[in-house]
């Protein structure tokens, strides 16, 4: 019989540095430790929480593919549908944590907090942050204050929303930020708080994940972009291309012309920005209306790719696709 005073938290492990094991020299391998091993570093948790662990994967998140996302989303939704948890924590590699968080946020239907966390330093390294981040994530998942705020990411004592959070530094403990909105809240040991009230919760943008996602590639623009790269990309016959453009989602005249041709042939073209913050605005230097382009708004290129993959399963129409990005 579960103790009803203890919040019931499901912890789902997927790997990452938080599950890293020492390898030769200073190095380590992401996704080697089991969830149970990680949790042994936090004795006494059961006096406070009712934990239920599930190892969904154990990989470096750079290797995550769409099928992993789908399996994870099913596992989380199945857990939510059982109605026997107060919160869910997902341990994850930090490299693509923001992509998984955003994808889950687009499809999960729940008021129960779903919180992703990870580590920038493996457990054996001095100053490792995994245990502290896990404790923070558990505290957030267990708190009624976190309910109805969608999928969250907790790193380095800050709570972020899935849509805005980004890994913004290649190394260092304070690698995560929400550059457009700032963090939603804070964590100190088991104490947590939010800076503002929760916005009224909307239903998820998509009811489910398609079995096979649309094929969407990302083109990274820079000075001296070789047009052959874009030619090679269009030859792959993608359903969509996300431009990680310079500035306001821009690229060379040559590339814009080729992207326009692709759009005319039915490829969804989304202009995002490589700058890391701000909002890509329509019809500034680029005539989006005329070219049939879509702008990513404030989504970064990797999140724009996820949204486009899912939105294309609903509609190929550029106007409707644009609505998804500005929703
Ligand atoms: N800090 C990390 O978690 C990075 C480890 C690995 N590349 C991953 O994303 O899983």
UniProtKB/TrEMBL annotation:
<dbReference type="InterPro" id="IPR040919">
    <property type="entry name" value="Asparaginase_C"/>
</dbReference>
<dbReference type="InterPro" id="IPR027475">
    <property type="entry name" value="Asparaginase/glutaminase_AS2"/>
</dbReference>
<dbReference type="InterPro" id="IPR020827">
    <property type="entry name" value="Asparaginase/glutaminase_AS1"/>
</dbReference>
<dbReference type="InterPro" id="IPR037152">
    <property type="entry name" value="L-asparaginase_N_sf"/>
</dbReference>
<feature type="binding site">
    <location>
        <begin position="94"/>
        <end position="95"/>
    </location>
    <ligand>
        <name>substrate</name>
    </ligand>
</feature>
<protein>
    <submittedName>
        <fullName>Asparaginase</fullName>
    </submittedName>
</protein>
<dbReference type="InterPro" id="IPR027473">
    <property type="entry name" value="L-asparaginase_C"/>
</dbReference>
<feature type="domain" description="L-asparaginase N-terminal">
    <location>
        <begin position="8"/>
        <end position="196"/>
    </location>
</feature>
<feature type="binding site">
    <location>
        <position position="61"/>
    </location>
    <ligand>
        <name>substrate</name>
    </ligand>
</feature>
<keyword id="KW-0378">Hydrolase</keyword>
<dbReference type="InterPro" id="IPR027474">
    <property type="entry name" value="L-asparaginase_N"/>
</dbReference>
<feature type="active site">
    <location>
        <position position="94"/>
    </location>
</feature>
<dbReference type="GO" id="GO:0004067">
    <property type="term" value="F:asparaginase activity"/>
</dbReference>
<dbReference type="InterPro" id="IPR036152">
    <property type="entry name" value="Asp/glu_Ase-like_sf"/>
</dbReference>
<feature type="active site">
    <location>
        <position position="17"/>
    </location>
</feature>
<dbReference type="GO" id="GO:0006528">
    <property type="term" value="P:asparagine metabolic process"/>
</dbReference>
<dbReference type="Pfam" id="PF00710">
    <property type="entry name" value="Asparaginase"/>
</dbReference>
<dbReference type="Pfam" id="PF17763">
    <property type="entry name" value="Asparaginase_C"/>
</dbReference>
<dbReference type="InterPro" id="IPR006034">
    <property type="entry name" value="Asparaginase/glutaminase-like"/>
</dbReference>
<feature type="active site" description="O-isoaspartyl threonine intermediate">
    <location>
        <position position="17"/>
    </location>
</feature>
<feature type="domain" description="Asparaginase/glutaminase C-terminal">
    <location>
        <begin position="215"/>
        <end position="325"/>
    </location>
</feature>
<comment type="similarity">
    <text>Belongs to the asparaginase 1 family.</text>
</comment>
<dbReference type="InterPro" id="IPR004550">
    <property type="entry name" value="AsnASE_II"/>
</dbReference>
């Amino acid at each position: 019989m579960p103790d009803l005073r203890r919040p019931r938290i499901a912890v789902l492990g997927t790997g990452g540095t938080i599950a890293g094991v020492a390898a030769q020299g200073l190095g380590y391998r992401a996704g080697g430790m089991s969830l149970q091993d990680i949790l042994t570093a936090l004795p006494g948790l059961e006096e406070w929480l009712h934990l239920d662990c599930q190892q969904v994967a154990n990989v470096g998140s750079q290797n995550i593919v769409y099928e992993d996302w789908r399996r994870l989303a099913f596992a989380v939704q199945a857990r939510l549908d059982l109605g026997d948890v107060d919160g869910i924590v997902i341990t994850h590699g930090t490299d693509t944590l923001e992509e998984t968080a955003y994808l889950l946020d687009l499809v999960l239907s729940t008021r129960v907090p779903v919180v992703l966390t990870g580590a920038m330093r493996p457990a054996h390294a001095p100053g490792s942050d995994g245990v502290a981040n896990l404790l923070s994530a558990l505290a957030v998942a267990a708190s009624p204050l976190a309910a109805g705020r969608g999928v969250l990411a907790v790193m380095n004592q800050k709570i972020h929303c899935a849509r805005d959070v980004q890994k913004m530094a290649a190394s260092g403990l304070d690698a995560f930020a929400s550059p457009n909105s700032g963090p939603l809240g804070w964590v100190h040991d088991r104490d947590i708080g939010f800076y503002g009230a929760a916005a009224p919760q909307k239903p998820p943008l998509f009811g489910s994940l398609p079995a096979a996602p649309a094929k969407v590639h990302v083109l990274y623009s820079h000075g001296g972009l070789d047009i052959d790269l874009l030619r090679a990309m269009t030859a792959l016959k993608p359903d969509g291309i996300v431009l990680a453009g310079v500035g306001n989602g821009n690229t060379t005249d040559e590339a814009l012309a080729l992207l326009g041709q692709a759009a005319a042939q039915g490829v969804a073209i989304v202009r995002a920005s490589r700058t890391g913050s701000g909002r890509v605005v329509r019809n500034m230097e680029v005539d989006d209306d005329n070219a049939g382009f879509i702008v990513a708004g404030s989504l970064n290129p990797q999140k724009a790719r996820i949204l486009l993959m899912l939105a294309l399963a609903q509609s190929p129409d550029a106007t409707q696709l644009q609505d998804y990005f500005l929703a």
